[in-house]
Hints:
Elements: E1 6-10, H1 14-27, E2 39-43, H2 50-54, H3 62-75, E3 79-81, H4 91-97, H5 105-116, E4 122-126, H6 129-133, H7 136-142, E5 147-149, H8 153-167, H9 173-188, E6 193-196, E7 214-216, H10 217-229
Parallel strand pairs: 1-2, 1-3, 4-5, 4-6, 6-7
Helix pairs in contact: 1-10, 3-4, 5-10, 8-9
Amino acid sequence: MNRKTVGVLGGMGPEATVDFMAKVIALTPADTDQDHIHMLVDHNPLVPLRQDHILGAGEDPGPALAAMARRLEQAGADFLVIPCNTAQAYEQNILDAVSIPLISIIEETVAAIGEVAPAAKAIGVLATAGCLHADLYQRAMANNDLIPVLPDSEEMEQLMRLVFGVKEGATDDSVKQSMRELANALVARGADAIIAGCTEIPLVLDESMLDVPLISSTDVLAQKTVQLAKPE
């Protein structure tokens, strides 16, 4: 078996990285320790805030992400993943720094719509202000003939409060209900499915809470990581 080592650019945020790793482990067919996937993780919560830089303020996180990628490649990673949607905006910084592939959480999540909700055309996107400002999901969806349904300005403010609350450890029922209401607002405006396009969101929102399919970017990236690292 041609097994590969995955390099994880993590810490954005910490809980989301741990959730991603747990899902990789859960998805890996394994009877022994040796059956699991070799993950090299640079868990770096000191990466400058992606939101601030994309929205015109704050330090550029590109150099920090490039340095992480180089460290992971030098340590033996065969390919890279980032369990953070907004950080994908700095893909070119990373690709310029290494000679190994970077798997796009954005592209993989949009591609998964065809499997999870093949009849869906209008897709609600719950993602950070930075991610949406960078048009990451909008471009990927346009390439797949899908229509994005996005939060309005008031919903975006609430979503950002919830995301940063999750980063602070707030995952109680009130947070879950508020996230559910935001998703349902997009459904009410015509969304046939919802993308959890921030890796904090699956910590408080799952498909059982909605009447339409939910595509978790964390789950999709974990599935792709297993597929690439331990091909059958």
